[in-house]
Each structure stands twice: as C-alpha cells, then as structure tokens.
Amino acid sequence: MSEIQPIVMPKWGLSMEEGTLTAWLVKEGDEIAKGQEIADIESTKIANAFESPKGGLVRRLAAKVGDTLPVGALLAVLAPASTPEAEIDAFVGGFAVAEAADDQQGGGISEVRFAHRGRAVAYKVAGGHHVGIPVVLVHGFGGDSDNWLFNIEALAAGRPVYAIDLPGHGKSEKTIERGDVDELADAVVALMDEVGANRAHLVGHSLGAAAAFEALSRHPERVASIAGLAPAGLSDTVNGEFVDAFVAAEKRKDVRAALQKLFADPELVSAAMIEGVQKFKRLEGAQAALKTIAAAALPEGRQARSYRAVVDKRHAPTLVVWGTKDVILNPEAVHGLPEYVEIVRLDDVGHMPHMEAASRVNEALARHFARAES
Amino acid sequence: MPKKTYRQAINEAIASEMRRDHRVIVMGEDNAGGAGAPGEKDAWGGVLGVTKGLQPEFGPERVLDTPISESAFIGAAAGAAATGLRPVAELMFVDFMGVCFDQIFNQAAKFRYMFGGKAVTPLVIRTMYGAGLRAASQHSQCLYPLFTHIPGLKVVLPSSPYEAKGLMIQAIRDDDPVIFFEHKALYDETGDVPDESYTIPFGEANITRDGGDLTIVAFGRMVGLANQAADELKREGIAATVIDPRTTSPLDTESILDSVRETGRLVVVDEAHPRCSMAADVARLVAEEAFKHLKAPIKTVTAPHTPVPFSPALEDLYIPNLARILEAARAAARG
Fold this sequence. Notes:
The complex is a heterodimer of chains A (about 375) and B (about 325).
Chain A: E1 5-8, E2 18-24, E3 31-32, E4 37-42, E5 47-51, E6 56-61, E7 68-70, E8 74-78, H1 85-94, H2 97-103, E9 109-116, E10 119-126, E11 135-138, H3 152-155, E12 161-164, H4 181-194, E13 200-205, H5 207-218, E14 223-229, H6 240-248, H7 252-260, H8 271-282, H9 286-297, H10 308-312, E15 318-323, E16 342-346, H11 353-356, H12 358-373
Parallel strand pairs in A: 11-12, 11-13, 13-14, 14-15, 15-16
Antiparallel strand pairs in A: 1-8, 2-4, 2-7, 3-6, 4-5, 6-8, 9-10, 10-12
Helix pairs in contact in A: 4-5, 6-7, 6-9, 7-8
Chain B: E1 3-5, H1 6-20, E2 24-28, H2 54-58, E3 63-65, H3 70-82, E4 86-93, H4 101-107, H5 111-114, E5 124-129, H6 144-148, E6 154-156, H7 161-173, E7 178-183, E8 190-192, E9 206-209, E10 214-218, H8 222-235, E11 240-244, E12 247-249, H9 253-263, E13 266-269, H10 278-289, E14 299-301, H11 312-318, H12 322-334
Parallel strand pairs in B: 2-3, 2-4, 4-5, 5-7, 6-7, 10-11, 10-13, 13-14
Antiparallel strand pairs in B: 1-8, 6-12, 9-11
Helix pairs in contact in B: 1-7, 3-4, 8-12, 9-10
C-alpha cells in the first residue's frame, strides 16, 4: 500500500476551501514528473495549471472534469504498474480528506501585524513551529503577500516562512515617508527583528528583490542566502509605461490590461485577481503610496538603485530566476553577473515566475536553501 | 480581512464619514432613539438598527430623530443639502416614498439642473427594500426602477457588505442626491470588509463570476443567487459570467455589452416587477446595441406583476429563486 501515492486538491491561498477541476492534462497510464502540469483547477479567486507535487505512474483519475471538491480531496492516484487494481480500488474507497490534510506541509498560514515606526506592517507566516533557518518573502511593486499563494506552504518544509506586506501595500498601513528602496528594506529588517530571525534566506520579487539586496548590503551577516525573482536592482531600466499604467489604473479594463503584461499567458488574469487589485487600490492612501514609491524607486522608466556592486561582493549564495517573456524588467540583465550567482531562466514565463511556474520556482528555491546551508 | 455584516458595514461607513467631515448628519425615524422624549437614547438605531451607536458618539445635533412625516424630513434633508450640510436621511421603507416623491424627484433631483449647475445637493437617502421578511405588500417592494427613471438621481444597490461600505462612503462624498437601497434580507449577511476607508466608484460593475458561455446580470440581493446559479451551471458544463452593476444610475452599460458580445446569451435577474424594470431596461439595451451578437432570446427572471403577497407560501413563490434562474440560464444556453 505504501507505494500508492495520492494527488489531492491543492490549497491556493488562505481563503481557498474548494476547487473545481476544469481539465485533466494527463490520462491514466501516463508517467508524470514532479512539477509537470497535470490539471487545470479553478477556485473562486484563481484559475491555474496544477503542477504535480509528486512523480510516478498515473493509475487512477479519481476526480472528473467539472467536479468541485474540498481542499485535500483525492484527485488522482500514482502507483507502480505492479500494484493490483484491487489495491487501487481499496485506496480510493478508503481515502478520507482528513488524511490528505495531514499529508500537507506547513500546518496552515496565519496573518499578523506589528508596529514599525508608528505604522502597522502586516505579514503572513507558515510553518511558524519549525526550527530551520527562516525564509522571508518580499513581494514587488503593487503586489502583496498573496502573490506567494503557490509558494508559501511549499517552502515551509522544516522552516518558517514569513511573507511581508511592504509599507503601502496589502494589509500594511498606507502611510509612506519617502517611498525609496531604503524605506522598504527598513520594513524587511524590522520584520526579521520582530520574528527573532537573526539570519534568514531572503527571497525578493521585482522591486522586493531590490529591498532584499539593500538589506543584504546593510546586514550581510544576517542573510543566509538571497534569491531574486525577476529582480530589480540589476539593470538601469524598467518598463515605465507599465508602472504609469498600473499606478493610474482604476477601472477594471485598465487594471486588467496592466496585469496581463505581468504574465506570459494573459488568461491567468482572472476577474477575481483584477477585483483584488482594485480593492487594494480603492483603500484610502493606497494610490498615493504607489505614486510615492514609483516616483522614488522607479522614476520615469529608470531604476533609482543598482545593486550590482553588492552582488559583486559575494556576501551570500545568490540565485536569480527570470522568465524569458518578462516585459517589465529585461531578463538580459543577468549578463555579466559574477560566476557564483546561480541563474535559472524559465522559458515562456513572464514577470511573475513564482505564480506562473510555481513548482519549478519552489524547487529551485529549495535546492538553493539546501546548498546555502550545506 | 475582518468579517462584518452588511449592517455593520453601512454603520461603519457613516461613522467614518461623520468623523472625517463635520457637515455629515444623520436624520430619520428612530435614528437617534428616544430623542425629544423621556425614552432611552440610542434605543433602536433605526427600525433595523443600522444607525445604532451614532447618537452616543456624535450627539443629538448630528443624529436627529424626526416626526413620522416623510414629506417634512426628506424635504428638510434636501434643503439642508442645498445649504451646505451633507445629510444621510433614512426613508425607513422605500414603499413610503409616495408621500415625499415631490421632494425627491421634483426638488432634490432638479436643483443642479434648474440652477444652471450652481447648486449641489449632497444628499443621501438610505432606504430599505425587498421581499422575504413577511412584511406584506406595503413594506416589501423593490422600487429602484422608479428612481432610476429620474435624471438627476443616482441609485445604488449594494449586493454585499464590501460593496455596502465602499458605495456608502462614495454616496456621502458625492455632490448629487443618491438613493441608497438596502435589502433588509441582507443585513445579517457577512463578508470581508477592510477597516480602512475606501470608495467604490458609481457606474462600475463588478464581475463576480467569469465565464464565456452566458451573461447573467443581477441586481442587489439577486447577485448572491446569480453567483450560486453560476456555480451550479459550471458543474453542468455552462460557464457563466455574473455582472453586478452596483448602481442602476449611472449604469455600466459597457461591461454588460462587452460581456454579451462575447457570450451571445443574456439572463437578467431583477427582484422588481417585470414592467419598466431594470430587467426590461437591460434587455432593451442589449437588443438595441448588441442584437447581432445574440445567439438566443434574452431571458428575464423577475417578480410577477402583482403586489408582494402576505401569504408566506405565496411570498416565497413571488421572489425570484435559484431554480428559476437556473431554468432561464439553461434555456438561454440551449436556445
């Protein structure tokens, strides 16, 4: 029986309780690899390809297209060809959702706020009971900690993961002082202090990577490793039209047009994702905060800070992940990085690799953390 | 995000605007509770408790009880708005509009126009509507089409606690008269509502479900039923878009037309009577502007052309329900 492995309905984000299987991308008898896209799944918030958390021979597709199932419900069964059909039948028949829930890592996500220089900064934590070196996730301009919904629990294997809402973003207060990378980095360091993380692996996306590089330059001894996903800070330019359009967008059509530039596959931008961004932008002070940050950190199509010199100092093991279809920050910026930096290029992926190629990014990060700790 | 009821969301919106702007005042029957009489202050907060807690915080000068005379206090609110305050007046049940319709449609709605754009009337009239509470035919109607008909009024129908707070703050900050419709069966519905202040612009629909086979336009309380219908239809292999216009005046015609041009099929769900309703209005819009994209006849799901029955059995039949929406959607998808 132990050779039989269940594939269950994933949990994408705090609020997801059930998902609908909209397509199978594999069939019974297929040999699948870990990370392979095996199904399309939709929740009320998001639609995405589901990348298999395990590899093996697909013996049974237990869920049908159109089924709406709770998180943890059985989708498919992997087992070697030698396992008798009767054993698979017994496994499917005896499968309970609760067993699957125990199988999931991380033990849930919670939301916390703390005071930093007189304003509230919010973060999510997964795997808070683990003792390994923690990971701090730093989202990009206009994003929030929900951008990590496909990563936060997967990365919490044996270590706590903290995902910040940068000042002016998500559930953090919208008051911004200068809006430069220093101010964002202050909040990242404050979060590490707040959770008692003397050392951490820093993972930054886009402008969040620049904040992580800034934290690294100030406190190299506190950074176990650093990873930049489509990182800012390595070249001079940014797609200024996108920044302006994203800041100005209020109507759904304009928000959608801006968000679609972030993905190689524009179909990934759902109505719920658009409304989520609109909900953030409607909050008093949010629009002003974005303007202040854009003016200070990403003025007129330029990046105000370069961290190439910091990377050259080789403070910590460094990983750079970039989608080849990124139209916001040019992936060619990886040229000329020092030899020690590991570079992962993802074909047909846009500016959001952690959403568009989640399991490949999760694996690259897990390998990177392990290497840094060895 | 914190969970709040529809009632709390509206209360929070009014309270935060009263803190922000001293010109915002609240008036209506029993809104303060016990004012002008030896009774308990803040006893009710309006008949269903929406304004409870405002009188203790903002005092008797800014939270006023009025006599049971809608013609007097709605007129007073319109005058107060024209002379510099920003009143939020409660017309307890929209069914009572008959006695104060002159004040609304011939006075407040016309000030900006009649005075050559020099007058503004930042008036909000909160009012309860809708069937389902066994309150019989004089306390259960959906009269938003009547107000939608009048140029100069803005008409708002929040479908959830999140919409209720953002649309109420927008209504209070708006310089035109706004009729704010609160469905009494939604008051105890809960949903995610940010603690911070935010506004939802008028005339921008919300797309609550996304699908390419069919467009369902639903108003107010009907949005939740339409979402349930879309979830059920998805299991049957029909992907429906659900559009909540949020406001009937202004109406986001663009979102409706864009969606119908994609799907070619339309169902409109409206709790009002069928004649001269939002269902009729949206059907007219699509027939006129997107006829060549239609692949099937437009379907409407409405209440019948009768008063709201007092008999519980009949009232339950009167209100558009999930089964009728599904039936109409399947017919539109097949046709």
